[in-house]
From TrEMBL:
The keyword Ribosomal protein does not apply. This is Ubiquinol oxidase. Keywords: Electron transport, Iron, Membrane, Metal-binding, Mitochondrion, Mitochondrion inner membrane, Oxidoreductase, Respiratory chain, Transit peptide, Transmembrane, Transmembrane helix, Transport. The lineage of its organism: Eukaryota, Viridiplantae, Streptophyta, Embryophyta, Tracheophyta. CDD domains: AOX.
Length: 349
């Protein structure tokens, strides 16, 4: 079946269901809409709008088109006003519509209920949150046993070169710190994932908890790179540190997850200290309290007039949560259990 013919066949099937009225003009694209309840912005709902262009349909054979028709019909029963508006707009644009993939992965958009398009592709409205900034920042795990002391002094010794290199350049320091901080969650999550596969057992939610932590740390980095641009030698340092730290943590986690989580717990305590110093310099006027980057405003649901200080406060709260999770994970091991024996603290912000 020719591409143009297949496209028009699919259009004939889909168009009445999409608009509920007359079929669109020749060459116009059909649109499939799907409502989605999400907590974006101030708890507002967002709408997932999937555009399916005629070019995608052109690539499909007849059975695929029939299957798509059935799915579209089912999903469309709950189409929303915003979705219809988008569909109408898409139909009006006709051939100018963005082409979807041969694989059926159509370009998708999220539209807030006020009609404003969600501009971030790296995270979705329902992944945003308001951190609990009332968390106790001073909580500290006192190193008592040898393993704790090894973890504690390992982290303390890592702080020395960091202090010498960055001194009080906290913007750069935060950025570099986050390139390291995003590693342990990914390594731990990956190893638990592999273990789950090998042993045919559940992880108790810990894989997701650790991967969530890694993603959260990476969002810290995405935020701070808007504030401080890394220079070439800082990028070179990241390469070196990542190469060493990833492998060291990987081996460390294989040998003793108890030690690995304890080290991260202490790293997070150091991160809280660094961000507290960062805040002091902002409050003293030594660092300009610039407007918060838009990505931070959306990710942490900050007010539109939020500043760098607000960002540092919420990031510091995140670090305190990571501290708790990792010390907790180490404690689980200390009690002779495995992580899967204790439900993971998911969505702990
Ligand atoms: Fe972080
Ligand atoms: Fe952290």
């Amino acid at each position: 079946m020719g591409a143009r013919v297949a496209g028009s066949v699919l259009l004939r099937h889909l168009a009445p269901r999409m608009s509920g009225s007359a079929p669109p003009p020749p060459g116009a694209a059909a649109a499939v809409t799907r409502p989605l309840v999400a907590g974006g912005g101030e708890g507002g709902a967002a709408v997932w709008v999937r555009l399916l262009s005629t070019s995608a349909a052109a690539e499909k054979e007849e059975p695929a088109a029939q299957k798509g028709e059935a799915a579209a019909s089912k999903e469309n029963t709950a189409s929303t006003v915003a979705g219809k508006v988008e569909a109408t707009r898409a139909a009006g644009e006709g051939a100018n519509i963005v082409e979807s993939s041969y694989w059926g992965i159509a370009p998708s958009k999220l539209v807030n209920k006020d009609g404003v398009e969600w501009k971030w592709s790296c995270f979705r409205p329902w992944e945003t949150y308001s951190p609990d900034t009332t968390i106790d920042l001073k909580k500290h795990h006192k190193p008592r046993v040898l393993l704790d002391k090894v973890a504690y002094w390992t982290v303390k010794s890592m702080r020395v070169p960091t202090d010498i290199f960055f001194q009080r350049r906290y913007g750069c320091r935060a950025m570099m710190l986050e390139t390291v901080a995003a590693v342990p969650g990914m390594v731990g999550g990956m190893l638990l994932h592999l273990r789950s596969l090998r042993r045919f057992e559940h992880s108790g939610g810990w894989i997701r908890a650790l991967l969530e932590e890694a993603e959260n740390e990476r969002m810290h980095l995405m935020t701070f790179m808007e504030v401080a641009k890394p220079r070439w030698y800082e990028r070179a340092l990241v390469l070196t540190v990542q190469g060493v730290f990833f492998n060291a943590y990987f081996l460390g986690y294989l040998l003793s997850p108890k030690l690995a989580h304890r080290i991260v717990g202490y790293l997070e305590e150091e991160a809280i200290h660094s961000y507290t110093e960062y805040l002091k310099d902002i409050e003293a006027g030594k660092i300009e309290n610039v407007p918060a980057p838009p990505i931070a405003i959306d990710y942490w649901r900050l007010p539109a007039d939020a500043t760098l200080k607000d960002v540092v406060v919420v990031v510091r709260a995140d670090e305190a949560h990571h501290r708790d999770v990792n010390h907790f994970a180490s404690d689980v091991h200390f009690q002779g259990m495995e992580l899967k024996d204790t439900p993971a603290p998911l969505d702990y912000h």
